[in-house]
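Query structure, 419 C-alpha cells:
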C-alpha cells in the first residue's frame, strides 16, 4: 500500500509531491535501489554513530521510544528514524533529540530526489536515504533505526555494522510481501516472517530477541547462524524482571521496555541507573494514549491506539478487559488488513463498536466492519467519521483504534501534535 504524507510547509510539500510522482507507489523490497541511491549520496549510512536496529511486527516503535529515552536519560543524544508518522512527516526523523525542521527536511528530500530519478526509489527508500543523510551531518551519540517492513530486504538493512539489533513481538502481517515463495524459503507463515525479521542480524553483532515458540526460534537461529551473529533470547539468555517499571500505558509494554533494556546491556552501552530512569520517562504517541482536553476530545475520556493487526488488537483487548468497564470502541481499519481477525479479539466484551473509514486511505467499509462485529456478538453501528461517532456516544470511556493513520487524524483534530 502506498505511503501517505502531507505537509503544511510548501517547500516540504513540493518535495513530497515529487517523491509521490517518482516512486512506484507501493511497497518494494530489496536492497539494490537503496544501495545505489546511497552510493550517489556518498554512502552516509557508513558515517552514523552506533546504531540500534529494531525489527518486529508489533512493539518496535515502543522499543525505539524506550531506547531513546534511556540514552537521553544518561545525558547522551540520539538520532531516531521511525515510521509511519502520526501527523507530520517530520516525526519520522529526529536529529539529536529534536524533530527535523521543515527547512532541513525540504533540502534533504530535494538532494535525494535530484539524484534518484533513474533509480525510481520507493517512498520509504527515498525517505530512508534522507534520514541517513541527515544523521551523517549532525553529531549524536547513537542512532535508533526502526525497520520499515520485514528486515532482510528492508531499506534500513544497508546498515553494515550496527551496535546491537533487536526483534520485538512477532505476528502475521504484510503477508503479500513477506511470504512470497519466490523471494525466500517456502516455510509456514510464522517461521518465514521470523526468518525475514532476523535478516537484520550481522556478523559478530548481538541480536536481542523476545521469547518465541520453539519452531520460530529455530527459524531465527538459522538466520542468525548464517550471518555469524549472536542470539540473546528471552527466557534462555536473559529474563524480564517482574519488578521493572516503565512510563507507557499497557501491561504489554513491559516486554518492549525489557527488550530495550537488554539491547542497551548487550554491549554495555549504558549503566543500569540510566536504563531505569529512561524506561520511566519514555513516551510514545498513538499507542494507548489518552487525549488531552481539546477541540476534539472536549472533557471526555477518549483514548487512541494504532492497533492494526491481530496481535496488537489482542494486546489492546487485554488492556481493556483488565479495566472491566463498559467502553465505546470506534474502529477504522485499512483495506489491506485482516478486519475479521482484528475485530474478533473483542468478542464477548462489554463494548459497543462504531465503524468508520480511515480518512484519506483505502479502508474497509463501515458497513462491513459493523457486520463483522455483529457476527462476534457485539453491538455495532456506523458513523461518517470519528467526530460524529464520538458525539453520539454516552459511554464514559471511548477508544479509537484500528490504524495509526486514524490515530494521527484524531491527534491533529485535537491540536495534540507529537513533538
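Result returned for the query:
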Amino acid at each position: 500500500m502506498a505511503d501517505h504524507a502531507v505537509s503544511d510547509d510548501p517547500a516540504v510539500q513540493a518535495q513530497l509531491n515529487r517523491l509521490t510522482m517518482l516512486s512506484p507507489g507501493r511497497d518494494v523490497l530489496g536492497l539494490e535501489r537503496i544501495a545505489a541511491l546511497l552510493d550517489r549520496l556518498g554512502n552516509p549510512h557508513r558515517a552514523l554513530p552506533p546504531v540500534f536496529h529494531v525489527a518486529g511486527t508489533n512493539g518496535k516503535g515502543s522499543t525505539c521510544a524506550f531506547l531513546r529515552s534511556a540514552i537521553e536519560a544518561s545525558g547522551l543524544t540520539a538520532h531516531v528514524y521511525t515510521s509511519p508518522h502520526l501527523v507530520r512527516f517530520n516525526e519520522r526523523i529526529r536529529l539529536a533529540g529534536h524533530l527535523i525542521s521543515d527547512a532541513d527536511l525540504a533540502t534533504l528530500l530535494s538532494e535525494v530526489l535530484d539524484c534518484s530519478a533513474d533509480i525510481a526509489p520507493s517512498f520509504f527508500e527515498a525517505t530512508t536515504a534522507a534520514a541517513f543523510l541527515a544523521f551523517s551531518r549532525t553529531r549524536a551519540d547513537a542512532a535508533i533505526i526502526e525497520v520499515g517492513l520485514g528486515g532482510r530486504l528492508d531499506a534500513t538493512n544497508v546498515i553494515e555494522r550496527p551496535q546491537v539489533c533487536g526483534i520485538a513481538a512477532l505476528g502475521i502481517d504484510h503477508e503479500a510481501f513477506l511470504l512470497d515463495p519466490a523471494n525466500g524459503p517456502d516455510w509456514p507463515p510464522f517461521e518465514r516472517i521470523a526468518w525475514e525479521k532476523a535478516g537484520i542480524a550481522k556478523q559478530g553483532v548481538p541480536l536481542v530477541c523476545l521469547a518465541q515458540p520453539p519452531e520460530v526460534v529455530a527459524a531465527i537461529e538459522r538466520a542468525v547462524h548464517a550471518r555469524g551473529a549472536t542470539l540473546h533470547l528471552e527466557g534462555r539468555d536473559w529474563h524480564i524482571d517482574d519488578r521493572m517499571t516503565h512510563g507507557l500505558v499497557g501491561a504489554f509494554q513491559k516486554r518492549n521496555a525489557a527488550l530495550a533494556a537488554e539491547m542497551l546491556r548487550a554491549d554495555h552501552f549504558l549503566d543500569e541507573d540510566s536504563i531505569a530512569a529512561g524506561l520511566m520517562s519514555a513516551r510514545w504517541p498513538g499507542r494507548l494514549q489518552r487525549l488531552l482536553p481539546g477541540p476534539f476530545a472536549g472533557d471526555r475520556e477518549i483514548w487512541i491506539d494504532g492497533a492494526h493487526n491481530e496481535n496488537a488488537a489482542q494486546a489492546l483487548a487485554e488492556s481493556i478487559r483488565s479495566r472491566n468497564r463498559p467502553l465505546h470502541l470506534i474502529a477504522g481499519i485499512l483495506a489491506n488488513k485482516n478486519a475479521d481477525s482484528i475485530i474478533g479479539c473483542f468478542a464477548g466484551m462489554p463494548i459497543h463498536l462504531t465503524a468508520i473509514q480511515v480518512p484519506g486511505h483505502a479502508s474497509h467499509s463501515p458497513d462491513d466492519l459493523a457486520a463483522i462485529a455483529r457476527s462476534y456478538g457485539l453491538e455495532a453501528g456506523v458513523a461518517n467519521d470519528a467526530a460524529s461517532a464520538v458525539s453520539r456516544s454516552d459511554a464514559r470511556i471511548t477508544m479509537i483504534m484500528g490504524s495509526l493513520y486514524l490515530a494521527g487524524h484524531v491527534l491533529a483534530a485535537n491540536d495534540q501534535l507529537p513533538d
